[in-house]
Amino acid sequence: MARIYLRPWFNVAYLISASASTTSFSQKIMSHLTIIVAATKSNGIGQSGKLPWRLSKEMAYFARVTSSAPEGQRNAVIMGRKTWESIPANFKPLSKRFNVVVSHNGDYELTSSRLSAPVHLCSSLPSAVELTSQADIHRRFIIGGVSLISETLNPTSSNPMSCIADRILLTRIIAPDYPQCDVHMPDFLEAGKEGKAVWKRASHDELVKWAGFDVPAGIQEENGVSYEFQMWFRQ
């Protein structure tokens, strides 16, 4: 899974959504991009192009939350080339979702052993966001890798505000710490330029309401790993 890297194919932590937020950021910008990612407390998300943990329940959560959409609509999953390449051939494109791969190589060939879902190639994040701004797209998720996550976390002069995430679905890996992780996402909890917190954690009830299904609350235990499903929104 050489995504740089979020989850394994049907399980990546994390990205983009279209629900009405109560934050001032989303009210003004309305980007409706959700990052979905699993990360340790030190923000480690991968090791040697793979996930150092294997959590089937967490992967099922990823699949369900990124697939759930009202009748007649679908969600979009936006990913980098390495994330696309990390998906096993028999699982890509991700079913029931509008797949978008971002690569600066315009000649990159998207190969798949099946045609169960649409997949498109875009040369940049802005073009991917524009492509998925269509009426039948319910929510848009950034699912990896780390470069796309970084790009959607931090506004820059070259990055339109429409490409900035206003929500993060975070699976926080609490223990072990996985010090062997060699890929880390930015610390989104760092204070902003004015010393104010940029992100605020939603309550579990808010997460359940947004997801549209019952999400396990509190610390989960699986294969010797402790983790928790969280939702954060930009203030």
From TrEMBL:
**A GO molecular-function descriptor:** dihydrofolate reductase activity
Q: What class of enzyme is it?
A: oxidoreductase
Task: State the UniProt keywords alphabetically.
Answer: NADP, One-carbon metabolism, Oxidoreductase
Q: In which pathway does it act?
A: Cofactor biosynthesis; tetrahydrofolate biosynthesis; 5,6,7,8-tetrahydrofolate from 7,8-dihydrofolate: step 1/1
By its UniProt entry, which SUPFAM superfamilies does this protein fall under? Dihydrofolate reductase-like
Quote the PROSITE patterns the UniProt record gives.
DHFR_1, DHFR_2
* Presence of the UniProt keyword NADP in the record: yes
Per the UniProt record, which EC number(s) apply here? 1.5.1.3
**Record bears the keyword Oxidoreductase:** yes
Gene Ontology biological process terms from the UniProt entry: dihydrofolate metabolic process; folic acid metabolic process; one-carbon metabolic process; tetrahydrofolate biosynthetic process
Query: Could you state one GO cellular component term attached to this entry?
Result: mitochondrion
Family per UniProt? Belongs to the dihydrofolate reductase family.
Please give the name of this protein.
Answer: Dihydrofolate reductase
Q: Which organism is it from?
A: Rhizopogon vesiculosus
